[in-house]
Amino acid sequence: MNARRVCRFLGLLAALAAGWVPALAGAQSAWPSRPIRLVVPFVAGGGADVAARLIAAKLQVQLGQQVVVDNKPGGNTLIGAQEIMKAAPDGYTLLWSIDQTFVLNPSLYNRLPYDPRKDFTPVALAITSPTAVIARTQPGSVGDVHELVKRAKADPGKINIGAAAILSQMALEEFNRSAGIETTRVPYKGSAEVAQATIAGDIDAAFDGMAPYVQFVKAGRAKILAVTSAKRFSGLPDVPTLDELGYKGVDFSVWFGVVGPAGLPPEIAKRVSDGVDWAIRQPDVVEKLLVFGFEPAAQTSAAALKGRIDSDLVRYSPVIRKLGFKLD
Predict the structure, then answer these.
(1) What three-state secondary structure class fits 125?
(2) Is 54 in contact with 285 (CB distance < 8 Å)?
(3) Confidence class for position 17, pLDDT limits 50, 70, 90
(4) Interval 209-224: pLDDT, tens
(5) Which residues, in sequence order, are CB contacts of 300 under 8 Å at separation 6+?
(6) Which parts of the chain fold into alpha helices (H)?
(7) Residue 259 and residue 85 in contact, taking contact as beta carbons nearer than 8 Å
(8) What is the pLDDT of residues 162-177, one digit of tens each?
(9) Are 205 and 191 in contact (CB under 8 A)?
């Protein structure tokens, strides 16, 4: 082989090698190629954590990699959110998010360590849960919402209603406005405390998430009078909404979803979103979610989550300002 042919041959090899390197790199970087960490900004064992683990178990079936739940509670989800904000946008660190992080905290804190719109990538809306109006069942307790309103009108400020989460307190205040009544809001640190106070008769009713009351409802010691969502909760189809009962504008539902760091590639977000959508439609997952007061979101896409964040920011911010809620 003469020198000219040798040069051509070597040039051809170089060209082929140049083509193979990107292809090889692409094959090695196929996502996901290792376990994914799902940061949950809540303590283990609560309703939000249980829901995250249910979905994570199904998600790993769809993605072909283990999805490891990593609990990072504290600071009203600030600790978990900051961990995601600082993570590489490679899809291996994701956040199990709640509305608290993106639509409540911006109004509750004077200075937030993150920008809810710029520092994250919406990935998937997963589940929702309405606030419920709850009372105990003992004789003399409130029988229904209309009776609650009647008692409040007869004795302004004498009816005590417990609430823990900011969203539940907002729902209560908007209910008071809609019904034209004055009640005494009794704030608690957590739903477990509200539930115990309700059953003990320390308060007349509660505005709260449903999960802590499941055992009491089954035992006949508590009853769900109404829900604050725009439509009835599918797990309790016989329970009316406040809107149906004539109390307008009291539409407050908690939502959970998956969020990634800013710059997360759209193709990775789409794979996660599709996986979440499949997970929350599985009958065994739906059954367990309903027990904890959750139901699958109608739309799970990144666009659906972004739209929910944007609309809730617009709707909730003036309510929080009006009520004077602050966390710092």
Answers:
(1) strand
(2) yes
(3) very low
(4) 988 888 898 899 999 9
(5) 124, 125, 126, 257, 273, 276, 277, 280
(6) 3-28, 47-63, 78-85, 99, 105-108, 145-154, 166-179, 191-200, 214-218, 266-280, 283-291, 302-323
(7) no
(8) 999 999 999 999 999 9
(9) no
